[in-house]
Design a protein that fits this description.
- The protein is mainly alpha-helical.
- The chain has helices at residues 2-37, 41-53, 85-94, 110-124, 135-148, 156-161, 172-177, 180-189, 205-220, 252-255, 267-282, 306-309, 314-323, 339-354, 359-366.
- Among the domains are: 35-58 and 86-93 and 107-125, no CATH class; 135-222, Cytochrome Bc1 Complex, Chain D, domain 2; 252-366, Cytochrome c-like domain (Cytochrome Bc1 Complex, Chain D, domain 2, Orthogonal Bundle), CATH 1.10.760.10.
- The relative contact order is 0.07.
């Protein structure tokens, strides 16, 4: 009798324990599910996937070394063909037999599974030309990856084949130097003395914005990380920015701004001074190919480049000629020339090299035709 009671008590306790564990599991899964509901796709990936697949999809983490087979490397181009969106959604929903990949359908909703897969494909996997890819990812694959590499870390051939090599978007230097404004400017108008061409006219403004945001999100900054968004005059450190760091295109209204201090530049006087003193570096044609240019780093400014023509109006030319350029051989001419003489040189440079890049737009603006108004951006 005693043994029977004891046996019944043990069975009852086992049943109670099983019920308790079942309730606990259900509660735990409901908490995870509720928590996942509040997460963005980036947060969902970092919370549930990064522990195996790596924070940036590189397949290496603190626990991945003990897995056989190892977790999938999303940043490997070899997986682009086989890892379709449908296959990846199925793998997350149902798991992968014979691997450590379990089913997540009890924790994540279908919408959350699709969201995290779209995040992985757009932000962690190499760019691709497929129409199913986002606009920025598709444009990068079509136009940029040939030099900058599928993963933004510079194509192998370009590292030694181009001087200077294309920007590696994945290193710390890029994150420190490349503000959103500077990148938009560089894509629009190119980078002088590099292989980076001007894409304005070949890509729409919507496409330029899309590809820049894709680069920043996929290669430079994970969601939530601090990016470099500089103020107009100071960097994140609070130090004054050099002229080279002051990026941003000028609209047509800004291109018509007069010289500072109510000065009127004498282009004839400026031409004589430029040819006698400035052309040795900047070239007689303003193309940065003067006789000394070969021996100078960084190279003298090419005033005929689209980047210069959309960056230098009369006030900015006056400032650069007066103050010089930090970390370059451009001297501060205010120590030699009067403000009027500086205005003369600036006027010659503006009328001869800068303004021709805007002549048609300015003509429309002055006659009230298409393209006039303060909202025009170039």
């Amino acid at each position: 009798m005693t043994e029977a009671c004891s046996r019944e008590n043990r069975q009852g306790m086992m049943i109670m324990l099983q019920l308790f564990l079942s309730v606990a599991v259900i509660f735990f899964l409901s908490v995870l599910s509720a928590s996942a509901t509040e997460n963005s796709p980036h947060e969902t990936y970092q919370k549930y996937c990064a522990s195996c697949h790596g924070r940036k999809g590189e397949g290496s983490s603190t626990i991945s070394g003990g897995m056989n087979p190892p977790p999938r490397k999303f940043n490997d181009a070899s997986g682009l063909v086989e890892l379709t969106r449908e296959r990846m959604i199925k793998s997350v929903r149902d798991g992968r037999p014979g691997t450590a990949m379990s089913s997540w359908s009890r924790i994540l909703t279908e919408a959350q599974i699709e969201g995290v897969i779209d995040y992985i494909q757009d932000r962690l996997m190499p760019s691709i030309r497929s129409e199913n890819a986002s606009l920025g990812r598709r444009l990068f694959a079509q136009n940029c990856s040939v030099c900058h590499g599928d993963s933004g870390d510079t194509a192998v051939w370009a590292q030694s084949g181009l001087t200077p090599p294309p920007r590696n978007f994945t290193d710390d230097k890029a994150r420190q130097e490349l503000s959103l404004e500077r990148m938009l400017f560089s894509v629009r108008f190119g980078r002088p003395e590099t292989a980076m061409p001007a894409w304005s006219g070949r890509l729409s403004e919507e496409e330029i914005v899309a590809v820049v945001h894709y680069i920043r999100g996929a290669f430079m900054f994970q969601e939530g990380e601090k990016s470099v968004e500089k103020g107009a005059e100071k960097g994140e450190s609070g130090a004054a920015l050099s002229e080279e760091e002051k990026e941003g295109s000028l609209d047509l209204v800004a291109m018509r701004e007069p010289m500072p201090q109510s000065l009127k530049g004498d282009a004839e006087w400026g031409m004589r001074f430029y040819l006698a003193n400035c052309s040795v570096c900047h070239g007689k044609n303003g193309d940065g190919r003067g006789p000394r240019a070969e021996f100078i780093e960084p190279k003298p400014r090419n005033f005929r480049h689209p980047a210069s023509q959309h960056k230098y109006n009369r006030p900015r030319l006056f400032e650069v000629i007066s103050k010089g350029m930090v970390r370059s051989e451009m001297p501060a001419w205010e120590k030699v020339l009067s403000p009027q003489e500086i205005a003369n040189v600036g006027e010659y440079v503006f009328l001869t090299f800068i303004k021709p890049g805007h002549n048609e737009e300015l003509k429309k603006m002055e006659t009230g035709g298409e393209g006039s108004g303060k909202d025009v951006q170039h």
